Amino acid sequence: MANLILILGDQLSHRLSALEGADKDNDLVVMAEVHSEASYTNHHRKKLVFIFSAMRHFADALEEDGWRVHYQRYHPDNPAQSIEQVIAELAREYQPERVITTECGEWRLHEQISRSHKTLGIPVEIRPDTRFVCNIDEFDRWAEGRKQLRMEFFYREMRKKTGLLMTSEGQPEGGKWNFDTDNRKKWAGKPPAPAPFREEPDAITTEVIELVNEYFSEYFGTTEGFHYAVTAEQALVALAHFIDFALPCFGDYQDAMSDNEDWLFHSILSPYLNTGLLDPMEVCEEAVRAWHAGRAPLNAVEGFVRQIIGWREFVRGIYWLLMPGYARENRLGNSRELPWFYWTGDTKMRCMHKAIDATARNAYAHHIQRLMVTGNFALLAGVKPEAICDWYLAVYIDAFDWVELPNTLGMVMHADGGYLGSKPYAASGKYIQRMSDHCQNCHYRVQDATGDRACPFNSLYWHFIDRHREDFANNPRMTMMYRNWDKQKSERREALRARADWVLANIETL
Ligand code: FAD
Ligand code: SF4
């Protein structure tokens, strides 16, 4: 045999760099469901089903395409419990010339694979991941020498590089790079939100569901109602579904939340993009075609393209630029454990309950729920970045370290000093009231900041501002908040502090 080609669970693409130039007759593709990857966090059971089933479908597709594939199915008693052990066993058996793989999405595994040539005694070739618009070296060059790394400027470079939504004169379509100001509407039930794309489980998925129910019954969430796509073909249908039914309103209601609708006008494409079932450029080009055909407005299409070639690429660049130290950042010095209701949804705070309940059912919550509800609460309450990062990594179907960590540690917790935002996304209950209908169904009163029934977000917001004066008072984007805080009568400030202290001391009862 010539080479072992290692393909990981988030590398399910026929165009993967590890497969380039490979020899179908002599090389062996290796894929493995291993205990160490399935159990390093309390993964949502739907996430496990999705990844195992998509891996099995992809292995079958490779075999149909003429590849030789060694596939290890999950069993808790498998002798090889980690990727390294699987490769070591096969290397002993087949004596390959080398191992070829594509760089992986997690520092922990990257370290293991980079060092594995020492124990294997054969070369391990790690190829760049070409499934991104901007590779790691290119991002490093862009970042070099810049005082501040801002997504907006990076995004403009990516627009120019890809030509997406650019005129033939090299200008942004519509005369503006960013139409975000048009994208902040509250949703009041109209137009109706489309039903999400559904793919019923086939025989492979059904078998995986049984496996996950048997061996991962203690893990978060449920396998019930699993409906995600598990092949590239199905993911393309999910893309078409989004373009037809949700994209036209994606921009308008991008920041909206609803008490009754889990998905609103979001694409629900992140699981497919992150595992290689969909290609980011193919997704963006499809959205731009819809705009050219008059099927979706520019604010929606620009907003969508920005999330993918802007935010998605930017957070990946930040991750690889700053790891491994990045994962240990805690610039706000937080020390609180994660409240238990993050795992149960058992809280009287309606917005939190709704976001966590949807997460447990679907392994999905949309961006604003992640950022402005569960994230905002963790920021205001001063939860340890490590604890909240572990939660996000576990509970979402699309969670992989390279994308989850910068979003949580950086964007939500501001624990990195501000790479993902020039100020923290801290907000009181007023924001949640403005963007949703949760407050009208809540035990707490959003209009109150003190008193037994006062919305916990309100006093916590001021507590956050007060306790982080040294961190933020000189930030020009925060001056107004400090002015508002200082303007309040001292008795009022004391009452707010007292209410926040009570909320923090009794956090598990909220
Ligand atoms: P849409 O709203 O339809 O957006 C379209 C696409 O844009 C997404 O599919 C995604 O690929 C991309 N995108 C949008 N925002 C971001 C972003 N901030 N960073 C990276 N890509 C983005 N996204 C993940 O893919 N995996 C994660 O583990 C993850 N963890 C997050 C944790 C927190 C605390 C926050 C605030 C955000 C996180 N995000 C993560 C980003 C974003 O919330 C999800 O990508 C999005 O909700 C996925 O749903 P969607 O496909 O319907 O997205
Ligand atoms: Fe959330 Fe406060 Fe509104 Fe209740 S009142 S839903 S806790 S923002």
UniProtKB/TrEMBL annotation:
Keywords: Lyase. Pfam families: DPRP. InterPro entries: Crypto/Photolyase_FAD-like_sf, PhrB-like, Rossmann-like_a/b/a_fold, UV-DNA_repair_photolyase. One of its GO terms (molecular function) is lyase activity. It comes from the Bacteria. PANTHER family: SLR1343 PROTEIN. This is Deoxyribodipyrimidine photolyase-related protein. It comes from Marinobacter nauticus (strain ATCC 700491 / DSM 11845 / VT8) (Marinobacter aquaeolei).
